[in-house]
Every structure is written in C-alpha cells, then in structure tokens.
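User: I'm curious whether this sequence folds into something compact or stays loose and floppy. Could you predict its structure so I can see for myself?
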Amino acid sequence: MSRIGWLAFLLCAAVAPLGAQEGRSARALKVYISADMEGVVGTVTPDQLGPGGFEYERYRRFMTAEVNAAIAAAKSAGATQIVVSDSHGNGENLLIEELPEDVVVVRSWPRPLMMMQGIDSTFHAAIFIGYHASAVNPRGVRAHTISSARLQDVRLNGRSMPEGGINAAIAGYFGVPVVMVSGDDVAVSELKALLGDVEAAVVKRALSFHSAETLTPEAARRLIGEKVAVALRQLERFKPLVLPAPVALELRFKHYRPAEVLAYLPIVERVDAHSIRYVGPDILAVSRFLEFVTTYAFNLEP
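Assistant: Here's the prediction. I'll summarize afterward.
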C-alpha cells in the first residue's frame, strides 16, 4: 500500500471510532412536563377545578388530553424519557390509565420540589401545561400563586413570581430550560417576560377572573402539539432561569396570623403584619420551605 493509502487508512480508523463513541455517549432526550389545570382549555370556574365541581370529570379528561398532546409531540421530536407531574389541587387529576405506558407520573403531596418533583440535571427541557397568571396580576383566569385562599404574593430575590417562575427557577438550578408553556394569554405573557421567547400555546384569552374566550379542546391539543414540536427541535434557543444564591423568599399572606406564627422560627423574619422573609442557600431550600409552609399542620396524620 502506498504512503498516501496508509495515511488514508489510519485517518479513517481514527475518525470512525470517535464518531461511534460520540453516538454512544449522547444522552437520550429527556423531557419534564408539569401540568396544572387553571390554564387548560375552557377552564374558568371552580366547576371544572375540583372533585366537587359538576364539570370536573370532563375537565380531568381535557387536562389529560393536553398532556398527551405534549407527550406525543415530544416523542415525535425524539424524546425517549418523559416525566409528568400532576401539579393541580390534590395532585390526583390526570387519568393515568390514558397516558402512555412508558411515562413516569408524579402524584399527590407533599413533595420537596413541589410542582417540579422528579426533575434533575439529566433532563433537556421542561414544559408547562395548563398554567395560570400570578396573584398580583389584575388579569388572568383564576390568577393566584400557590394558594388562592392564603397568599397575596410570592417574591424571589425581590421579584414577584408566578408559579411558573418559581418552577422555572427550580428547573434552572439543574440547568434545565423551560421551552414551552400553555395557558391563557395573561399567564403566557407573564412567563415570556420572565423567561424570554419560549414557545407558547395560548388556549384561551382572559376576560375576567372567571371568564374567557376559549379554543375548543381539539384546537388546543393541536396547538400544544405544534408548539412542543417546534421547541424541542430548537433546544439551543432556550436558556435556564438561574437565580443567584442565596435566594431570598418573601411571602405575603392574606391574613396576619401565619406571618405572626412563622416569625417564631429563628430562620424567619417578619417584614410587616402580613409578610415574612426567609433566605435559603438555593432555590431547593426555598422550595422545601414553601412546601412546609403550605402543607404543615399540627394535626397531620398518619
């Protein structure tokens, strides 16, 4: 064999294993889906949002169908591992028998990472389905933050946050970007202002706290699928939301007694009659503190 032939042979031998090695080491596409319900198509009042509502069983199906639309699109884009967090109300809304058999589902409470339980640094993308606007927003269908009955505002490092912002920060701790969100137009605008130009499916437009102009379920599913597909094929566009540490949490309650009692803890500062401040080393500590505040009761059993 000539010298040129040997050089060509050696070059091919060197390059081929490298390419094969890169192919073997590439991570499978992992997607995390956090699903709420207030932002699901057609949802406008408590009639759809809890087991006591006369439309709840129908809207559980709509919620499940929107999640399935996101799952199907993610798989078409190459996702091989998907975790779904049932993140509304009691955490037992999704009809898990209607989800694909290879999907992992997180259900019920409490959870240290709240609506993002199960996420870690192995995921490539997070998707928010059925999200709503924050408690401080004067618009938005069923706008609230974590607890519509008890909280007026949740701030991280001085900035008022919707649930999607808190959850995006948890994902960002692990280096995972939020790439797509669905909900009403107000919720989508809030999250875009915080996260940048994420893909978004506006499935309804808010008219008031309890009314909206809404797509039909079929149209919403189609739109969600389209937006998920676009997002997952352009992952390089998106950056994780990373909060600088330490992370200061401020909670403003609708009543003064929670602030009064929580201030008995040496790690808590009472800011005013209705507000407290807690500083955690990172967003994970803040998440655990939030879950404690919103879950703990002296008579917890079993």
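Summary: DSSP finds seven helices and twelve strands in the chain. Residues 3-25 form the longest helix (23 residues).
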